[in-house]
Design brief:
Layout (H helix, E strand, L loop, with lengths): L1 H47 L6 H19 L9 H24 L27 E10 L4 H18 L1 E5 L15 E2 L4 E2 L15 E6 L12 H8 L2 H4 L4 E6 L4 H6 L4 H7 L5 H9 L1 E2 L1 H12 L6 E6 L13 H11 L6 E6 L2 H11 L3 E2 L10 H16 L1
Parallel strand pairs: 1-2, 1-6, 2-4, 5-6, 8-9, 9-10
Antiparallel strand pairs: 3-7
Helix pairs in contact: 1-2, 2-3, 4-9
Keywords: Membrane, Transmembrane, Transmembrane helix
Length: 395
């Protein structure tokens, strides 16, 4: 009986050691795989993330995966040693969770907004001029893969940053699958310098030449000012923070108000701009419609004869699309507003040609529209989007 019992115990030990070997092999292989993948995706992830790559998230993924392999590769009988891998799993999960909680505690959700951030321009504020433009220092604007409105908002904000830091504005206007229009087909500018006018290539630059600001839309932030990059713009002396030749701004959001909120630059901004008219002032200084678009817009406005325009904007596609079944509420609302005006016109800006046809049936000859029927994302389509924005600004 003892000999049989010893054989059973030896068999269990053999299966146990086999299970341990499997755990070690799986964990070692997966660790190597994880390191290789991390190296390969670190650069694209860092360009997509708003701040530095959240490596703790990677740790959690790694721990969960390695724990999965550990549990399912541990082949042994129901003995007390089965609790060893469970303990191993608990320790490896609890440690990164603790690290993530520490990161959250010290991350953007913990940042407090200065109590004097608002109002932007107190009546008793002293006046101070914006710094002179240094021809040898630059803000370089790089748009993200977004649409027309986001590009304009971010470009205008980059211009505001160039003003408060006294730098030339360069634009790296990039064509993409969702934006196929050249800058010159949309706008003219006496302020923006072509990128080719400055020797600016990634191959000829190192980290000592530029600051990089990734200022993109943050779905996680309850307030945009809470994000570290926006906190920097809203609270620090940017002329001391940014001393290198280039400030590369990659953005798709309107962050100019952050500069107006900055106590170090507020006086200079307030001496030039009214907070409630900040965007329109910056836009009109920086951009002018291209001759073709300006001519088409003026021709359409000439047919209005000083009649009031009620603007309607409805997006039915992309991720912020409005439910089709509720579109009628826009028409009814606009129709209700029209009772307050004498013989108004209606203008609808939408990414749906079907919706525009329905609007024509609803409003009849009171619907104002441009003659072109562009294809989405093409140069003609982007030009039409710019015209829509300009017309909405007249409503």
């Amino acid at each position: 009986m003892m000999s049989g019992g010893n054989q059973i115990n030896d068999s269990r030990r053999a299966r146990y050691h086999l299970g341990i070997q499997n755990v070690v092999v799986y964990c070692a292989c997966f660790s190597l795989f994880f390191v290789i993948v991390s190296i390969l995706v670190e650069v694209p992830i860092s360009t997509m993330m708003i701040t530095q790559t959240r490596k703790n998230i990677g740790v959690v993924i790694f721990v969960c995966a390695i724990s999965f392999f550990a549990v399912f590769s541990f082949k042994t009988s129901r003995s007390s040693v089965c609790f060893l891998p469970l303990f191993f799993v608990i320790v490896l999960i609890c440690c990164p969770v603790f690290l993530l909680s520490q990161e959250s505690r010290h991350g953007f959700n913990s940042v407090t907004i200065p109590s004097d951030a608002l109002p932007y321009c107190p009546k008793n504020m002293s006046k101070r001029s914006l710094p002179k433009i240094n021809p040898n220092k630059y803000v370089v604007f790089q748009p993200t893969n977004t649409g027309t409105g986001n590009r304009i908002l971010a470009l205008v904000s980059a211009y505001a940053l160039s003003l408060v830091t006294g730098r030339q504005l360069l634009v790296d206007w990039q064509i993409s699958s969702v934006f196929k229009a050249q800058f010159s087909s949309l706008f003219e500018s006496n302020i923006i310098k072509p990128l080719s006018s400055v020797v600016f290539t990634n191959q000829s630059m190192n980290e000592d030449d530029y600051h990089f600001l990734n200022l993109v839309y943050c779905r996680q932030c309850s307030l945009r000012l809470r994000h570290p990059n926006f906190v920097l713009l809203a609270s620090e002396n940017l002329n001391k923070e940014f001393t290198k030749t280039f400030i590369i701004v990659r953005s798709n959001v309107y962050f100019a108000p952050d500069l107006m909120a900055n106590v170090h630059h507020r006086e200079a901004m307030c001496s030039e701009f009214e907070p409630k008219h900040l965007f329109s002032s910056l836009f009109n200084r920086l951009l002018k419609l291209s001759p073709d678009l300006e001519s088409e817009l003026n021709h359409t406005l000439d047919t209005i004869e000083n009649r009031d325009i009620i603007g309607i904007q409805v997006r039915l596609k992309d991720r912020v699309g409005f439910p089709k079944q509720k579109v009628g509420s826009f028409f009814n609302c606009a129709n209700y507003i029209s009772t307050k005006y004498e013989d108004p016109l209606f203008f609808i800006a939408s990414d749906s040609e079907e919706l525009k046809r329905k609007a024509k049936l609803f409003f009849g000859d009171k619907l104002l529209k441009f003659t072109r029927k562009p294809r989405e994302f093409s140069e003609k389509g982007i030009q039409a989007a710019v015209l829509d924005l300009m017309m909405l600004s007249k409503c």
